[in-house]
Each structure stands twice: as structure tokens, then as C-alpha cells.
Amino acid sequence: MINTIKILRHQGKQFIPDLRKVKAPGIFRGRPDIGPEVCDEKALAEICPTGAIMISPVRIDLGKCAFCGECSRIFPEKIKFTTDYRLATNIRERLIVTEGRIEPLTLGMDVIRKEIRKFFRGSLKLRQVSAGGDNSCELELNACGNVNFDMGRFGIEFVASPRHADGIVITGPVSKNMASALQITYDATPTPKIIILAGTDAISGGIFEGSPALDRSFIDKNHIDLYIPGNPVHPLTFINGVLDLIGIK
Amino acid sequence: MNFLTIHNQQSVPFYDIPEMTYREFLDGNSSFIEGDRDRHCVLYFGIKEDVYLRLICCIADDSTHNINISSTSVKLDAILDSFSATNLAFEKFEREIHENFGIAYIDHPWLKPVRYPVNGFDKSAKMSEYPFFNIEGEELHEVGVGPVHAGIIEPGHFRFICNGEQILHLEIQLGYQHRGVEQLFLNKTKLLQRTILAESIAGDSVIGHTTAFSYLFESLGGIAVGREVLIARTIAQELERIAIHTGDLSAICTDVAYQLGSSVFGRLRTPIINFFQEWCGNRLAKGMIRVGYNPYPLTAELIKRLNEVLNAFEPDFSEMGLEISKLPSILSRFERTGMLANEQLASIGTVGMSARMNAVERDIRVSHPYGVFSELDHEPIIKHHGDVYSRVRIRREEVIQSIAYIRRMIAMISEESASYIPSFKLRSNMFSISLTEGWRGEICHAAITGDNGDLIHYKIKDPSFHNWLALALSVRNNEISDFPVSNKSFDLSYCGHDL
């Protein structure tokens, strides 16, 4: 008992008090700023391993970006990754960051379904489905609930069964071999229910795009309520995205 | 027996690999391994050549630090005697060859699907029709779990046959995570695309897989990286070990409902992975390892931060580690749970910490050293009980050992060398194999290049490929309620296995 108290004391305070404003440590690669400088745009687009860079004007699709930072290493004047971790949105097109427009990513308020804020604002239970995920997004989603990030303080939790859930969080590019299990999990979730895509692989297939081992028909045919980019998605990106969706300030 | 003998991460002309009849190949390799614990098969795979299948077998010899390579060609419709009939460590390799190419084995004891690959031989094979082992009996019942599990983890299906609460048999069906990674290595031709792929093989072993890939490509390209890069990569490898081991200790405590251990180890992982973010911009070190150079040199400022992080981490980690070894309620769940005997581990080819938990010494850092491991005089941590507690103690001691290694490596850094990217092209018609010791165990990447230096074959083996069978065997005669803690104490990779 005395040992337990000693150990507890030694940990100090580990939780992050303000998850909305805390600064991400180090050189976190968050929302990119694309400057107005003139550069060899073709060479720039050619660098990108996932085809996320489009040209004239230069745009980066965060739904495809692997956040490897290579474009910014070779064209440091043109592209700078900021530490802004608030990358989530509910409109797919808003994930495309355009040159010269420096503005944070936001959700489209009129696109949020009415029942989401009505039912889930005080309590949101999520069922996670890894469909070809590489376990990096899964580790970070687990971290959302640890003592540092403590997402549970907002009533947001991952639950063991889709029957207990208000929605599903999908990670991974959706492998063919997981396609039917994903559909069954979704069908087992009671309505109203939401779908969140966590990580670049889930949003676009990422580096796996074009693999014949994928089956992304579930993503294509269902309404997606939230896109959360990242490789893997950072806990702060995930938590802030979900808070914005359910309307907690 | 005629072998081509190479070192870890050495490249040789593909046509230098000796080719022999299947009988010579089978008998030669079998007798080479037979009775010698230092020799084990690190890779056995096939490549299609017209109507033939070229089979290549790589046997690592831990005492001589060599890898012995041999090959044979068989017709695609061949019916063969199996290695597995006499050496169980080959069972997964031969199942993979059977699944990919349709090679039939007359005496394979367990010729079942591995991962239902998209380019498999039998296009009609369905995941829903996996041929599970079953036992008839009124007292017995089956428990099916997954593919979607209760926690935030990857998918796999576990089928238990139980007598009451007691597990008689567990069979694990995998393949749900199959993304076609090996084929993508050939399809995506840019070096950076392949590097991102290597980072995505298993997101908890980013350093392990990406360094294996990088050393392989550097070898095939005939370039050598500077000492600063070797030191940085080796430090990163040990940091990854610390981070994931600590996270696993947290999860193991969760599975025996020990809240304090779960929270403390969970929060102790945070500063380590946050240091990765300070170092390279990503908590799981994606973006750090690049072929031919180090994009994020360890600056004096970063080294100072790393020392601070480790100095703060170590006493809290040791204190918590000591506490769990003193609590009877914890020990009663850890000790004699999920046990495997030394002979079983050795016979099925277990690798890494899962092998070291019961006196099977498998550690690439000492047997086939790379990076700067040869300068560390690494001594593997070996335990002798093969239970959950052995796996917990290995993690505790390896974390402390890795901290000491990192401190020594920091002292080795003489100066910040300028980071430059060498020009780089793969040499044609070469074969190379690269082994690294990830936190789970040996990671193996191998590649073959064609006439104009393009990749014509890429092969990946995660340690989980062997170790899933160890988990299935370890839970026999356990209560089914002990399965979660056994499973977590192995913490095997689904995506690394399914590829």
C-alpha cells in the first residue's frame, strides 16, 4: 500500500489539461503551409510517394499524404509542415490544402447530421475496426484513452462490441479479406451511427492504393462523418476532430 | 552439401546460388540443421521461373555468423516430400509455398491456408471455409473469437476447443490483414514509395522493418552508410524496443486487472515515443530511416534531450517493474501461465524474445550483428520458464539493457557528419538477405534483382510468422480466461504475418 502511494506520487501530473490548445512537441508534421514561391512544380509532384501533390496551383491532399515530409525537405521554401494537429474534417474536399491559402481545417457545420449532436454530445461510444491497418493507428487510438490524453473525460470511449457502439472507427486501407467482417460490424451497430476514417490508409488507401488485395467498396458506398488524416493519426488530431464533430468546445 | 555462404546483409550474384536436385536439397539442408541448435532456417521461399519453381533456402548458422544458401528447381505441378515431416520449423514456409504456387506435399502434417493471398494458387479458396481442426465429443465445446476483437487491435480469428473452462486446442486463422505488400514492392518503383511500404509492414516495428529494408537496398546498391548513420539507426532500434516493451507491460497489467501497472507503464511509454516525434516528427518513427543517409542527424541538443528522457524514465520504470514482481496476486496470474518447453520452442522454430523466454538463444544482434551491435558485446537476456512471467521479465530487463546500450552509443558519436544522399542504383542479377532484431525477434527481408537492376522478387518475414504457433501451443491446458494475458505477453503482429 505504501509502495503504491509512493509510485503514484512519483508519476506527478501526467494528464494534458487542455487538449484543444496544447502544443505538439518537437517537429510534428501537421497541416502543411504551401507558400506562393515559384518552383519546379512537376518535380515537386514527382517526389510524392502517394500522389498526394497536385499542381497549378500546388495542392496537397491530406487524405492521401503519408506525412513523410520529403516534399518539404527538397522544397523547404515552398512547403512547410506546421505543428497544427487539427486536421480533421467531414468534407472530403477540405482535406486538399491549396497554395497561398493559410487557414486551419474545419468541419462543415451544415453537413453534420442533426442526430449526431443531439445524441452523442454527452456520450459517444465507438467500435474500432482495423481493416488492413498496420497497428500504428491502432496504437495511437489506444493512446487516446491513456492517462496522458484521457479522452474519456469527454465521455468518448472505445467499446468492446458494436452492439454497445454509436459508430465505427475504421483504420487501414480495407483489405479484401476484412471487407465482410467490416460490413457485419457496421450492420451490428444500432442506428443512428457514425463512420469515422482514421488515418491516411483508411481515407484513400495511402501507399496501398491500387493493390488488388483491397476492397474499398464499403468506404465508397457509405456516408463518412469524419475524416481524420495522419500516418498514424495523432491522438490530439483524433480527439480534436471528434470533439468538433459532436460539438464540444 | 554445396552452399553459398554469405554474411548478413551481403549481396551475391543470383546465379552463384548452387542449384541441385530436390532430393539433395531436402537431405542436405535437413541434415545440416539436424541436431545443431545454432542452425535454423531464416527464409525458405519460391520464385516462379516459367513452368518451374525455384526454391531457395537460407540457413543461418549462429556460431559462424554465416548464412548458407542453396536452391533447387521443381516443376510447378510437383508432388514433394516435405521438410516439415522431419523438421517442424519448416511447416509455415511449406504451407506458404503450397498456398502461393500449388506445390503438393505428400507428408506435410498441417497443410492449411496461411493468409488467403490475392495472388494465391487456388482462386476458389474462401476465408469462410477454413478447415478448422475439430474434435467430436459431448463434453467439448468450441469458442470462436474474432476477427474483430474487443480491444483496439488488429483482426484474426481464434478457435478454441475447450473442456469446461480448460483449453484443449487453439487454432489461429490469419490473413484478414493481407494487403499484398510483397507484390507492391515490385509494383511501386520509386525508392521512397518502397521505403514508406517498409514503414507500413508493421507499424509497431517501423525501425525494425525499415532498417532491414534499408540495409538490404544499400547492399544491393553497393553503397555503405557512414558511422553516424549506423549509430543513429541502432539507437532508434533500441528506443523502439524500449517503447513497445513498456507499452506491452502496460497492456499485460491491464489484462490481469492491475490498474496501477497499466497506467504507469502506459504513461512511461509516452516520453519515449514523444522523443521520436522530437527527433523525426513522428511518434512511431515513420520518416526516420531512409536508404543511404539519415535525414535527422542526432544533434547535440537532441542528445541532451534523450539523456534527460532516459534519466527521468529509468527510475520510474525500475520502481514499477520491481513492484509487479512482489505482488502475489500478479504473480499468480503470470507464473506457469502460457508455458512452453524449451524443446517445443526449438522444434517449431520460434524466434526472438519468445524463444529466449525458455533458453533458446535466438538474437540477431549477437548471432548476425549489424549496425554497431558488434561493438556493444550484446549478451541476450535468457529466461528458463517459458511462461508469461518469463516474457514479462525479459521485457523488464531488455528495457534496462537497451537504456545502457543507448548511453554507450551516445558516447560513440564523435561528430555530426554532414548528411548527404549518395547516388544509387540497384546492381543487376543480385540476391541479398537482411536480418535485423526487432523487439519481437528476427526480421528478414530478401530481394532479387533482374537484368536491368529492377526488383524481380521481394520477400518479407516478420518474427510473428513463426511465433503464432508458439502462442497457440502455449495456451493448451490453460483456463480460457488466461488467454488474453498469454496473447498480450507474446504480442504478435497480424499485419506483419499477413503482409
What report would you give on this structure?
The complex is a heterodimer of chains A (249) and B (499). Chain A is of the alpha/beta class and 249 residues long. Chain A folds into two domains: 32-98, Alpha-Beta Plaits (2-Layer Sandwich); 109-246, Rossmann fold, CATH 3.40.50. Chain A contains nine helices and ten strands. Chain A has helices at 2-11, 41-47, 70-74, 114-120, 136-144, 176-187, 200-204, 217-221, 235-246, and strands at 32-34, 53-54, 59-61, 79-81, 96-98, 124-130, 156-158, 167-171, 194-198, 226-228. The radius of gyration of chain A is 19 Å and the shape is globular. Chain B is of the alpha+beta class and 499 residues long. Chain B has two domains: 4-114, NADH:ubiquinone oxidoreductase Nqo5 subunit (Beta Polymerase, domain 2, 2-Layer Sandwich), CATH 3.30.460; 181-498, Cytochrome-c3 Hydrogenase, chain B, CATH 1.10.645. In chain B, helix 5 (206-221) packs antiparallel against helix 6 (227-255) and helix 6 packs antiparallel against helix 15. The longest helix of chain B is centred in the middle third of the chain and has 29 residues, at 227-255. The two termini of chain B are 33 Å apart. At the A-B interface, helix 1, strand 6, helix 5 and helix 6 of A face helix 3, helix 4, helix 7 and helix 8 of B.
Quick tags:
heterodimer, A: 249 residues, alpha/beta, Alpha-Beta Plaits, Rossmann fold, five-stranded parallel β-sheet, three-stranded antiparallel β-sheet, globular, B: 499 residues, alpha+beta, Beta Polymerase, domain 2, Cytochrome-c3 Hydrogenase, chain B, 2 domains, five-stranded mixed β-sheet, four-stranded antiparallel β-sheet, 16 helices, 14 strands, 17% strand
